[in-house]
Write a structure and sequence with these properties.
Length: about 220
Amino acid sequence: MKVVLLHAFPLGPEMWAPQREVLEGYDVVAPNLYELEGSSIDGWAEQIWDGFDDDFVAVGGSMGGYVAYALARLAPERARGLFLTGARAGADDDARKAARNAAIRTLREQGIEAWAPTAPAPPPPERTIEELIRATEALRDRRDSTDVVRRFQGPLWLVVGSEDPFLPADEAREIVASAPKGRLEVLEGAGHFTNIERRNRFNELLREFLAEAAGGR
């Protein structure tokens, strides 16, 4: 069973460093989404899936969670579980799409320094304007994944911070309530990046989830 780590925006695979101890002994794949071709969540999932044909669990943060949904849609027979943080199931509404478009304009016209104060986290110094634009386009244009949540037969765990400005706890409750094997954990005082902000509790949950998923078949 592979463990596919899918990072958040605007961070990269390095965001999973606090989980290194939990993942020892597992076959881990941690793609850099910015290195994939195009600006499509589904397209990224297809490129990742092209690299293996094993059973897997997907661990996704925010943008990575959307790729996890896409992987589960692409290969439901291989997906043993989804462990997500800060990832809503629905597509962007008109207001969010407008905000994404405004962010793209800022990046193109004024650069990263002007955009960074509105970002969910400071981007690593190696991140380029083109990478940030492609990722924002992918977020803006992603498909609705509520159908994936309703149909997914493995464990689907969603971790959310009580102070997450992008995924309110009430919305997270609706997501897990629609999943056949959904579970919600709300981490008090945490924001959008729960694996970093509440690493100890996050790691406890991830360890429990991996043990359940590994024994599921």
